Amino acid sequence: MTTTLSPRAPRRDALENREAIVRAASVVFRRDPEASLDAVAAEAGLSRRALYGHFSSRDELLAELLTRGGARISEALADVHHDDPRIHLALIGAAIWAEVQQVRVLAQLALHGPLEKTVASALSPVRASVRRATSAGVSAGYFRESVPVESLAQLIEDAAIGVLDVAVRTDLDEAAGRQLVMTVGLSVAGLSWREADALVASIPGSLLAAWSAPGSGAVVGSGAVAGSGAVAGSGSEGGRS
Amino acid sequence: MTTTLSPRAPRRDALENREAIVRAASVVFRRDPEASLDAVAAEAGLSRRALYGHFSSRDELLAELLTRGGARISEALADVHHDDPRIHLALIGAAIWAEVQQVRVLAQLALHGPLEKTVASALSPVRASVRRATSAGVSAGYFRESVPVESLAQLIEDAAIGVLDVAVRTDLDEAAGRQLVMTVGLSVAGLSWREADALVASIPGSLLAAWSAPGSGAVVGSGAVAGSGAVAGSGSEGGRS
DNA sequence: GATAACTTGCACAGCCATGTGCAAGTTAGT
DNA sequence: ACTAACTTGCACATGGCTGTGCAAGTTATC
């Protein structure tokens, strides 16, 4: 008695194609937030026309991306806490690193126009967490006090995105990338590199286990990312400059 | 005997209009590198058609912008040297801060596509200078050694752009902005915030005089930047679709 | 004040991207 | 195997931006 209502249930491959489209969009838009739907469809291995069978407009696709990205990130940050604001910040870095792909799509999309507000709300958990750690770290005398806290938090955020770019571009392995994101974040906050390195080294592996874990399920984007001739095709080296 | 060749010399206001266009382009493209020429013409107070009287294509206008920006920056960096790599890096920061507008236009344009190479070459003096200071600082044990020098230089560069954004956005005064750019650059390099602050404070004013100077001539873009109702006016939001 | 230089406004072509409709396929479920 | 679900390829309307031609203005310069 599956479904007596409709004459037939939706097909399973349709669902798969929908996923493929979202994944493709994630890959393509990370490189160019204004890419055409044709490009997305191509990356997904479908026709442009079929894409409209799943999303009735470009904006609807964007909305889906934003929603998913935001959810992934919130989830990842959900249980990141630590009494030492320095370690807290480092852990945020590690969590973010585990979600690079998502974060970078959001960051890219943020540059656009009308998405700003949506993206902002998607990233707000990160922002809040960073802000809390920053503020605590400044009070404790660890972080620089020569800048208003909001600006500092913003700087750390911006720097983090930059680091993600570099890390991805230079093809660091998981551990190295995570380490870089953590230490540079701390540096911008105000620590010297020796302090940052030492601090990060002192973090018990158990705290990082969640992300460094072997088969950390639910890795939506990873496949797409690996297969991304994307990064290679575009940037080559010019990158940001 | 001005010019016996042509029946009449070009008019002076034409030159002024050309300048206005370039300035407008600088303002508009800094916000949105893909803005239409209509937007540029409007910002310049001219018609789109008139614009084509000065630049035969969009690319020609871009080229002019790139060339000027590159020239300004090279010039600003020409006599930035110091034996202490930390101070060298800080001074680069100060020099860059004096050219924020230019740098930001270039950085924006860099995200585009076919411009990559041109932009890259325009910014190459900065890159080279940063790389030199970075490498020297690492050798001296001041900067972090846990990252390959090229990546570190890249990180510093990226961070600098981020700082410029924040600084401009939060409307810091000249001195504060310069200070921020210098210290955060040093932080990413690896110094603690106390070290960075102390170091920057120790830099004799004479070394900064060049930029902090009252009427440092040749400030091409400053007027345009100040007058930019740009940021406010444009966005509206409709944007794409 | 005559004349060339410059601007404007309009009309036009071309290109590219978005959405949509429809007829003909192909493929998954029952 | 039959049928509905899904995909494809095409055609089409719409809208934005570029680049150009031309006639009619305005303004600097001689």
Detail the topology: elements first, then pairings.
Two copies of one chain form a homodimer.
Chain A: H1 12-31, H2 37-44, H3 48-54, H4 58-77, H5 85-98, H6 100-111, H7 116-139, H8 149-169, H9 174-189, H10 193-202, H11 205-212, H12 222-226, H13 229-233
Helix pairs in contact in A: 1-2, 1-6, 4-6, 4-7, 5-7, 5-9, 5-11, 6-7, 6-8, 7-8, 8-9, 9-10
Chain B binds a DNA duplex (30 and 30 nucleotides) through residues 7-14, 17, 36-38, 46-50, 52-53, 56-58, 240-241.
Explain this structure.
The structure is a homodimer of 241-residue chains. Chain A has 241 residues and is an all-alpha fold. Chain A has two domains: 12-56, Arc Repressor Mutant, subunit A (Orthogonal Bundle), CATH 1.10.10; 62-209, Tetracycline Repressor, domain 2, CATH 1.10.357. Chain A is built from 13 helices and no strands. Chain A has helices at 12-31, 37-44, 48-54, 58-77, 85-98, 100-111, 116-139, 149-169, 174-189, 193-202, 205-212, 222-226, 229-233. The longest helix of chain A has 24 residues, at 116-139. The first copy, chain A, is elongated. The model of chain A is unreliable at 215-241 (pLDDT under 50). At the A-B interface, helix 8, helix 9 and helix 10 of A face helix 6, helix 7, helix 8, helix 9 and helix 10 of B. Chain B binds a DNA duplex (30 and 30 nucleotides) through helix 1 and helix 3.
